[in-house]
Amino acid sequence: MPAVLFCPVKGGGGNTPAGGSTSHGIIVMKKFPRQGGRYAGGPGSRQNDRGPRSSRELTVLYEDDAIVALNKPAKLLAVPAENSGAPSALSLLSAELKHKRQRAFVVHRIDRYTSGILLFAKTWPDREALVRQFLEHSPVRQYLAVVRGHLKDKNKEGTLVHHFRQEGMFQKLTRERDPKAARAELRYSVERLLRGASLARVSLVTGLQNQIRVQLSALGHPVIGDRKYHPEEASERRITRVALHAAHLGFAHPRTGENVSIDCEPPADFQSLLQALKLPSRPRR
């Protein structure tokens, strides 16, 4: 069975002790301590010098009796696909929680080829409370995206508003008066200029399928590796998936109302792309 790597934060009751193991062959990793009210984890954090060893391993960034936040590797499905036996984050987590007589319920999704934070609830009432937050667009959802070209807005930030019409598995731009239109809004800021590219931090206001990819493409800056909407990206060799990572999630705990803030460093392939596109240093005068 694919492994689930447990990396609980300090105070996350009900977790297996750090450094232990279970009778089900599950690898248990050390804890991610809480840092100033934020839960940090991933390959780049000091508390964890080792990320998931394969796309079939999941790291638990945070867990308590109500919720579980995973670091989903790129190329792993968030939920099972219809008529497919391929593993998913939901199926792997459900198999592990079953040993503890617990369940996993889907709260939201991220695309298969996107890496990063994915949240699940352990009970239906907790799931309903969290879904209401997502429907009200109150959670803070931030992604890192590497896009083609240099974003040239005056203040290196902006807001994008479009309207989508879903056609099959694709989102198509349409007009607001289209009766099947769905409003898509995001905010972005430029974190770093790269060689022929930009690293952007994107905050979702709405949360439509493929939203970031389609809106940044409409701006003239497609996400590197996005073969679905830009077939020419198939020639990209520095990363073999869309360069998009769910880096931050903030929400109210479904039982206590306390703010939960989770951060997740980009995986090795994303970091490698950034390094490959790094601008040369300017010579000192």
Give structural notes.
By secondary structure, this protein is α+β, with helices and mostly antiparallel strands. It has a domain at 4-139. Helix content is 14%, strand content 32%. The protein contains four helices and 14 strands. Strands 1, 2, 3, 4, 5, 6, 7, 8, 9, 10, 11, 12, 13 and 14 form a 14-stranded mixed sheet that branches. Strand 11 (182-194) and strand 12 (197-204) form a beta hairpin. The protein is globular. Residues 1-55 have low confidence and may be disordered.
Based on the structure, what is the oligomeric state of the protein chains?
single chain
Estimated share of beta-strand residues: 25-35%
Tell me the overall shape: globular
* Global Rg: 19 Å
Biggest sheet statistics: 14 strands, mixed
Order of helices and strands: EEEEEHEEHEEEEEHEEH
Q: How many DSSP H or I helices?
A: 4
| Number of strand elements | 14
Name the structural class: alpha+beta
| Distance linking N and C termini | 58 Å
Helix content: 10-25%
Low-confidence stretches: 1-55
Average pLDDT across residues?
81
Q: Secondary-structure blueprint of this entry?
A:
Elements: E1 4-6, E2 34-35, E3 38-41, E4 58-63, E5 67-72, H1 89-98, E6 105-106, E7 115-121, H2 124-135, E8 140-148, E9 157-167, E10 170-174, E11 182-194, E12 197-204, H3 211-218, E13 244-252, E14 259-264, H4 268-276
Summed up, what is this model?
This protein has 4 helices and 14 strands. With about 280 residues, it is an alpha+beta fold. The termini are far apart.
